[in-house]
């Protein structure tokens, strides 16, 4: 039996984060695509809702957690789990000033930026306000630009080759999927040279390359 | 000098979480109110933006982190920091199955439920779509009810006196501020008996009582 099964969607940022983390740690996994749009959204079907009543992807199943099955929801929890049990490389420092710097910057992206732009928010805005493609893009751009302005400032003090110094961290794992979304919705990245440059470097790393949405088997 | 200075706003859920955690750990702190509405929002003023370029509350300053100053953004990072350095009581289990259960449930609230209802999202909806008080309440209710339906299901398998078993955890710390928001925006809690009952118990605890928004010096 495969140890790791990842329930995910190719374009989901949170799924993309977990793919990067699994690849960085060189952990093979079986991908179980959950199509967020087909048939009213497969994340709402009973099979998946049993794994996550929140009906959001990703979910990682570890079939060998001390010989038992462990179901993990929430991308940041999944990556925390992987970090504790497969610490090479460690993505969140174990302790010290750097730990809190890394988790806070990752949360700036994963909590304050991304959820407002999630598919279900866009779907609700479309239903309630007849959002067309232009309105959608404007909504996305507004929040991404606001978040990136702050992030660009914060990174200027702490970045090296990567977001925090010269080791790949959880911040980088969250950044690349967010830049992918930014480009998808036409955000001009020129005001964010640090973000753009770190992201270019990261995108050459094989773990990031293999995690790219368009390379996933369910990409369409 | 006071060791802990908390930059916060009485009605901010994320600030409320940190107050509860500080109180549970019996750590005294100096409150520095940042008024999110006055003068265009004090969180945007230079004094605060230097502490958090993201211009969101809370920020905790520890003036004695091994003799140095440590500035911490993001409520979940702040609580993680407090847990590592002041572990009595521990709010997130150090390891094991329970750790990931607690962090994932807390993130269900802090990532997937709360940010969509944040003040700045409501302010943008008001500007863009002429949101009146009824539309605001409907928007809040929609996301809170969706999140609470899932949470109620998830808690049914794991709760005891509190959200996860019989010890207060990070989930409880996130739950009470979210229920406060639910009540503020007229969410009917009767479909969520587990949430309502745990919350009633928690609200009798002195650490939760002292953290209540209306008891804060900046409440108005």
TrEMBL record, chains A, B:
GST C-terminal domain mapped to chain residues: 95-220
Record carries keyword Isomerase: yes
Cellular component GO terms, alphabetical: cytoplasm
Alphabetically ordered keywords of this record: Isomerase, Pyruvate
Gene Ontology terms for molecular function: glutathione transferase activity; maleylacetoacetate isomerase activity; maleylpyruvate isomerase activity
Lineage, top ranks: Bacteria, Pseudomonadati, Pseudomonadota, Gammaproteobacteria, Vibrionales
Family: Belongs to the GST superfamily. Zeta family.
InterPro entries: Glutathione-S-Trfase_C-like, Glutathione-S-Trfase_C_sf, Glutathione_S-Trfase, Glutathione_S-Trfase_N, GST_C, GST_Zeta, GST_Zeta_C, GST_Zeta_N
Alphabetized Gene3D superfamilies for the sequence: 1.20.1050.10, Glutaredoxin
Any Pfam family the entry gives: GST_C_3
EC annotation from Swiss-Prot or TrEMBL: 5.2.1.4
Protein name per UniProt: Maleylpyruvate isomerase
Highest rank taxon of the organism: Bacteria
Boundaries of every GST N-terminal domain copy: 2-90
The species this protein was found in: Vibrio thalassae
GO biological process: glutathione metabolic process; L-phenylalanine catabolic process
PANTHER family on file: GLUTATHIONE S-TRANSFERASE YFCF (PTHR42673:SF21), MALEYLACETOACETATE ISOMERASE (PTHR42673)
SUPFAM superfamilies in alphabetical order: GST C-terminal domain-like, Thioredoxin-like
């Amino acid at each position: 039996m495969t140890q790791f099964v990842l329930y995910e969607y190719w374009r989901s940022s949170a799924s993309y984060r977990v793919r990067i983390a699994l690849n960085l740690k060189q952990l093979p996994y079986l991908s179980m695509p959950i199509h967020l749009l087909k048939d009213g959204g497969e994340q709402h079907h009973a099979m998946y809702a049993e794994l996550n009543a929140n009906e959001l992807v990703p979910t990682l199943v570890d079939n060998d957690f001390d010989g038992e099955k462990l179901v993990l929801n929430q991308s940041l929890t999944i990556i925390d789990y992987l970090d504790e049990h497969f610490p090479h490389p460690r993505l969140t420092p174990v302790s010290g000033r750097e730990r809190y710097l890394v988790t806070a910057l990752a949360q700036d992206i994963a909590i304050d930026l991304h959820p407002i732009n999630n598919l279900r928010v866009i779907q609700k805005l479309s239903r309630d306000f007849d959002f067309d493609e232009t309105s959608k893009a404007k909504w996305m751009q507004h929040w991404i630009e606001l978040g990136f302005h702050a992030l660009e400032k914060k990174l200027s003090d702490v970045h090296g080759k990567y977001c925090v110094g010269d080791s790949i961290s959880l911040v980088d794992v969250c950044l690349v999927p967010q830049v992918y979304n930014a480009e998808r919705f036409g955000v001009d990245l020129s005001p964010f040279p640090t973000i753009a440059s770190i992201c270019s470097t990261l995108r050459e790393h094989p773990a990031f390359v293999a995690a790219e949405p368009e390379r996933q088997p369910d990409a369409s």
